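Try this one yourself first.
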């Protein structure tokens, strides 16, 4: 049975929390600070940010205000597309550390696989890992062909691939490939940017446990062995999203949710992103 502090071991032995807070589109500094602080006070032990989100500073401030020890909170950030390349990534990372006011990151990701640059970007991430400035290496929005290109030159395989993943986009082929290569999957947009929150099938399953659709989806992610980072700025939702550790979906429930895949994206496809 999972808890809010449950972890998954990455292939280098680092323990990554299975559940955390995503902070995409938390644009208002005060709202971002309050939301992140609320999550940490609720018991969240992971925060997923990015340079592009422009709220790394608020993550650092909320962490200090929470009186949590830095080593007890797992912080992920990402290098944005316009900062990719080897030297550029190293410079972007320095800025991220400054914004967060920390001397290391738990996980650093290539945000999108910018053509002609993502391999060099990952090479810089490997250097940061070698220099012990990050605890783990990873990528985001990488398809199988992107990963295969990295494998051709990388000294160490990415430990994490963060991708759009929810019941309407179950990404089975990519998930299986990552599992075979010991790469942990993190689900961004785990609730399908809200589009899945009206699904009657999931509502029916959740009602058996007295749980909301969002809670049922988050539980599906956890039992599917995904890292899950739901986002909310609403205090009650931040608590609700974390209240998923007192029930367990049956194998039949899991299979039913697995069948509602539509291969429907609500974000960009990595091969068609406007780089």
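Now uncover the answer:
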């Amino acid at each position: 049975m999972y808890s809010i502090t449950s972890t998954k071991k990455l292939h280098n032995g680092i323990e990554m929390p299975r559940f955390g807070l995503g902070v995409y589109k938390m644009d208002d500094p005060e709202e971002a600070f309050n939301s992140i602080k609320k999550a940490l006070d609720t018991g969240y032990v992971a925060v997923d940010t990015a340079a592009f989100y422009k709220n790394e500073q608020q993550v650092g401030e909320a962490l200090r205000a929470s009186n949590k020890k830095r080593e007890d909170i797992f912080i992920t950030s990402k290098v944005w597309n316009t900062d990719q390349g080897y030297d550029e990534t190293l410079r972007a990372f320095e800025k991220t550390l400054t914004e967060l006011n920390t001397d290391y990151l738990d996980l650093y990701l290539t945000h999108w696989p910018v053509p002609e640059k993502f391999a060099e970007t990952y090479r810089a991430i490997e250097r940061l890992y070698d220099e012990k400035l990050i605890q783990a290496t990873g990528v985001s929005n990488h398809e199988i062909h992107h990963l295969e290109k990295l494998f051709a030159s990388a000294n160490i395989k990415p430990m994490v691939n963060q991708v759009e993943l929810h019941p309407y986009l179950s990404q089975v082929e990519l998930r299986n490939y990552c599992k075979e290569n010991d790469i942990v999957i993190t689900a961004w947009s785990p609730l399908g940017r809200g589009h899945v929150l009206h699904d009657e099938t999931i509502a029916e399953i959740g009602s058996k446990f007295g749980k909301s659709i969002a809670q049922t989806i988050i539980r599906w992610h956890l039992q599917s062995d995904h890292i899950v980072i739901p986002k909310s700025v609403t205090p009650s939702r931040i608590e609700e999203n974390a209240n998923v550790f007192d029930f367990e979906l049956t194998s039949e429930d899991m299979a039913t949710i697995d069948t509602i895949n539509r291969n429907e994206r609500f974000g960009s496809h990595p091969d068609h992103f406007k780089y």
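Discussion: The longest strand covers residues 134-140. The mean pLDDT is 98.
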